[in-house]
Amino acid sequence: MNFRLNKNIVFFVTTALAMTVMIWFGLSTNVDFGINLTQEGITYPRGRVVEVVSDQTSVDANGVRRGRQDLRVEILTGDHAGRIVEAQNILFIDAAVYAKEGTRIILFFEEQSGDGFFARVHSYERATAIYVVILLFFVLLAAVGGKSGLRSVYGLIFTFVTLLFLLIPAIVRGAHPAALTLFVSVCVMSVSLIAIMGFQKKTYVAIAGTTIGIVCYCLFYVVISVALRITGFNIPEMSMLTTVGFLANARIADLLFCGILIASLGAVSDTTVSVASTTAELSAADPKADFNALFSSSMRMARDCAGSSANTLILAFTGAFLITMIVYQLNNFGYHMIIHRADIAIEVLRVVSASSAMILCAPATALIGSYVYAASKSKTVKK
User: What are the chain's domains?
Assistant: First the structure.
């Protein structure tokens, strides 16, 4: 018991130190590509509306408020903190920031010649609400899950820190996107599973199954992307990366591969954890069960789990594409026009590569788990 406790302490201390280093690395990343899309003298400070000078807005037939407001805003951050300025607020359909007295906002603040300036409302101040929502989610997870919930919160924090402060900054600095994402994916899932389940056989089985799922995804992605002629440059965001000169610093085509892998990691690990835990419970319930019995029972669970998880993953990817399909329908795009589009092929690549990997990792986990638990029983019998 003391040994297991010591292992847990070493694990949490080590990963906490790793997160500290990653946060330092991420915050210190500031790469200059020679192109600055923002202008000198422009800042985005937080502000609080102290007075609505005029309100010339109205609600249109769609229920969207449009028009213009003239505001007096107190700047809360930056070099001009404490200063009260006049600010314009133009409400559009996609940027309807309706301000009232006390509303916290983000300003677009441009310093001009002399003491002049121009200020307008950029967006709502949402950071505080975001932090509160995330905190409430963590509290809910811990309250329902108890000790396991707290461990899950730690795993989520580690995943968030790794992706935001290590993966993205390292890619921006010029690291190979695909290789780094594969390494980070295995590390993140290993740490998360150990944090949730501890140092147990089923944890190692789930990690092995997840790793196999990642390898399967790589194979499916390569084959399907070649078959569908998807280069990775087909998505709209790529033009933004080439604009800032990112092309010379990383393999942009690999970023699609990285995005799909990260998006599918959760579903893959859920499948492997379910199968590994089921195999462990079957072994504990029937101490006499051999490899064949364990594998047969685990496979029944694996089939059900793979089917339901694949459905979940397909709906998740398809749901994100729903608005685009509605736009196609409104523009009377025929089936023969839609099926050949690159964005449709990319969605097929996302769904099939990720789902196929998840389906294959279920029987692989059942096989590994059955072997591990059957082997441990045979050693016990020999002793």
Answer: 42-125 (2.40.50), 174-382 (1.20.1640)
